[in-house]
Amino acid sequence: MGGRHTRRRFSRSSLSLSFAVVTATALTGCSVASGDPNIPVPTFPVASAGQAAPGSEPIKIAIPDDCTKLMSTDIAGALFGQPLGSVAAQTVRGVPEPSVGRTERVACTYRANGQEATTNAAKGPVLYQLNIGRYGDAAGAKRQWQLNGNAERADAVSSKDLTIADAPAVLIERADESTLAVVYGVDTLTFVLPVSAPGQDRSAAETLPDLAKRILPALAPTQPAGSRPAPAPATPTPAAEAGRRSAAAAPGPAGDTRPGSRYGPGRTRPGGYGDPVLRVGLTGGIGAGKSTVARRLVERGAVLVDSDVIAREVVAAGSDGLAAIAEAFGPEVVGADGEMDRPAVASIVFGDPGARARLDAIVHPRVRERSDELIAAADRDAIVVQDVPLLVEGGMAAAFPLVVVVGLDAEERVRRLVGARGMAEADARARIGAQADDAQRRAAADVWLDNSGSEADTRRQVDALWDERLVPFEENLRAGRPVRSGPAELVDPDPTWPDQARRLAERVAAAAGERGRGVSHIGSTAVPGLAAKDVIDLQLAVDSLDDADALAGALTAAGFPARPEITADNPKDAEPDPARWGKRYHASADPGRLVHLHLRVHGSPGWAYALRMRDWLRADPGARAEYEALKREAAALFGADPDAARYVAHKEPWFDAADTRARTWASSGAWSAT
After folding, report:
1. Is the pLDDT of residue 566 over 90?
2. In what order do the strands lie in the sheet with 187-194?
3. How far apart are alpha carbons 46 and 53 in whole angstroms?
């Protein structure tokens, strides 16, 4: 079942869904911190800039003698999710080695100091290291790169050949660190990413090429003319390029630009398709292991969209977003490196609602536009997984047809943050305390992935989710095919039914927007203590059946395709006119949660009947017991049928008679339709 999706591999992309989340993320980053030039790098001899070791040729200075000219600490901090002002860069210059043709060597080390930020950068754990060697010609650089690569492969767990901005590269992964070796014109670059790097929520295969794509354009102007391929433009998210390549490889027909639906909970395409893309919200508290789940989903074929990354991308150096911010708040909000000075912007907008609104008005439309581009680049049958750290805190769960939460006990998260990321315990507890708690996340979760076991256990859970739920969900959604309920099988009352119904009702209400007049949980699962089929029945009230028809696309995008063959309820004796019992009917495309969605005109007989029958059964224990006995009788007679048609028909005469009793109860003053 999962083979069709498994064939595709996509890189990370980005998306953000709320003004608050966008603004908070855009302001997250690190101020520029000066490095400590006296920290030695043990891989080669150390010399002061412009000096040479005894007996060697003078160093010809061309590579910047300050690593922050290649990548600012602001950018490094943002990439690794470090607190403001907590990243420092060290620059060490090495001596030339004429025997191999090397004329320069520079080493850069970026460190995260956590709560111990001082001028002594050596106290902080390493985020990543970069060694650059410059050679007399491109042939010499490539020869040395090949030698280095062969040596690095000798003890590697795995290796992979890549091309980055037309430059050959090899990715080497070991148990304790990963290395990316690149030859670019007359330069060799070696990036080293420790497994223990704090704040790292992406795989080495994603992070290291991303770093290289940012460094190469900054290094290119220092090389001799004609010694290198033309650098590709720096891209804050390599997934954007991958997504565009994916779209170019399998273009749709004219008009298939997929700019997004105004309804929000899905994306539908113009050009005659009307087929939505399945969007899955992925979230979890800090340290819960969300990145592990995200990586496995990408391995299985998901298009991963990252809310944190895109909010930074739209205000990156040289962007029109940053230009607009500078125009609104003054040129001082742009640092010497061309990047946004996040602390400066934060000091302006925090505590000033008007300033924050101006910032939101700049950032949010660009995030939305970029998000639409990324989703539009996916294949028609894509499963888009949107990584949104603050999905619960931002109240965004209803915007997704499915929400997956990665769960882990808070104390275990503290242990992992301290042990794996090097975070101070007080900082870890403060960050966890500032986020939603487990109860709030469970309330938003359609799927709760327990990450308390081994990584292999988590991967097995993700694989089961992919094969058994996400792939068939996507196929059903694309085909406009609701899941049928199958045989009539009664189950004992589930105390979670009301919470599930609430979550689903919020999703339906978000899709309906202004055309909706309220969503109610109806049917047997809405009656406490009543055995029922495990199906959630919901009722969406509308002003007219025309409105109901107009909502078909939005509801399908939210995960509820229509069943057009069902257009009315059975009239009851008190109001026998069939014309007044019209309705529209949708059902869930999600195989993991059966939902029947009834669209009825607000105030119509069918609308009132569903609410009145539910509330009467809640209020009358005798009627409830009588109805359950009938349900069990019908299930015993017709439970072996492939569908529930005869089960439903067997109960219909009882409903006709019960309507009179329910009306009598309601007219006593104990009930009113709402």
Report:
1. yes
2. 87-94, 102-112, 126-135, 187-194, 177-184, 167-173, 158-164
3. 9
Cα(266)–Cα(553) distance, rounded to whole angstroms? 9
Tokens of 495: 């105390």
Chain position carrying tokens 């989340």: 21
In terms of Cα–Cα distance, which of 128, 129, 132, 130 is closest to 105?
132
Q: Report the alpha-carbon distance of residue 35 to residue 127 in Å, rounded.
A: 14
CA neighbor of 447 nearest in space, from 466, 432, 433, 475: 466
DSSP code of residue 334? B
Sign of CA dihedral 661, 667, 672, 673: positive
8 A C-beta contact, residue 268 and residue 41? no
- Residue 439 pLDDT: 93
Contact 21, 326 (CB under 8 A): no
Report how many helices (DSSP H) and strands (DSSP E) the chain contains, helices first. Answer: 22, 19
Q: pLDDT tens digits, residue range 373-417?
A: 887 788 888 999 988 888 898 888 999 999 999 999 999 999 988
Q: Whole-angstrom Cα distance, residue 432 to residue 332?
A: 33
Residues 20 and 377: beta-carbon distance below 8 Å: no
Give the position of tokens 């503290």: 414
Q: Are 16 and 388 in contact (CB under 8 A)?
A: yes
Both structure tokens of 291: 């990145």
Q: How far is CA 602 from the centre of its chain?
A: 36
pTM above 0.85, yes or no: no
8 A C-beta contact, residue 300 and residue 463: yes
- What three-state secondary structure class fits 584? strand
Whether 167 contacts 256, CB under 8 Å: no
Instruction: Find out whether 383 and 5 touch, Cβ atoms under 8 Å.
Output: yes
> How far is it, in rounded angstroms, from Cα 49 to Cα 526?
75
